[in-house]
Design brief:
Blueprint (H helix, E strand, L loop, with lengths): L2 H14 L16 E6 L4 H8 L7 E6 L10 H11 L5 E7 L9 H10 L4 H11 L2 H5 L5 H13 L10 E6 L6 E5 L6
Parallel strand pairs: 1-2, 1-3, 3-4
Antiparallel strand pairs: 4-5
Amino acid sequence: MSLLNEILSFNQSFVEDKQYEPYITTKYPNKRVVVLSCMDTRLVELLPKAMNLRNGDVKIVKSAGAIVNHPFGGIMRSLLVAVYELQADEIYIIGHYDCGMSAVDPDVMLGHMLERGIKQETIDTVNYSAGDLRDWLRGFGDIATSVLKSVELVRTHPLMPKGVPIHGLIIDPGTGRLDVVSDGNQHL
């Protein structure tokens, strides 16, 4: 049985047995917060538990490295939607120690793309039309610097209301300890 079939089989029982009932909530975050975090598997359950969050408390946006790398990209749009349409009053950008994005080498990733069948001509076309592909794929060296860069991009975005605190934190994926690198309340 494929993983998809296993998921669908479980889902059918989940729905039939009404196991969804404990998770019923509204689309508006109870704590009026949106969290941007990394997509790291260690954070799926750890991050909400470490922050005392339950289903329905916050909006969670995930990206590799918890990076906002474009002021008009999908991550920034999601944060703006959470603030303007879904009643979020605070933003938490939470990176983590031992992040895979800190070790991403764009040349190695491009090599992996070639190994998996992406043609060099396609890479050249994307590089030409989208700008420096290596720069876009590059990871970061220091997590605190990366979080602060994303915080600053969101904080100074021309469409972000000035009264919204933008916090920057780093979580330890082993213990759940949170370290504050930028308290957004101090910038209001």
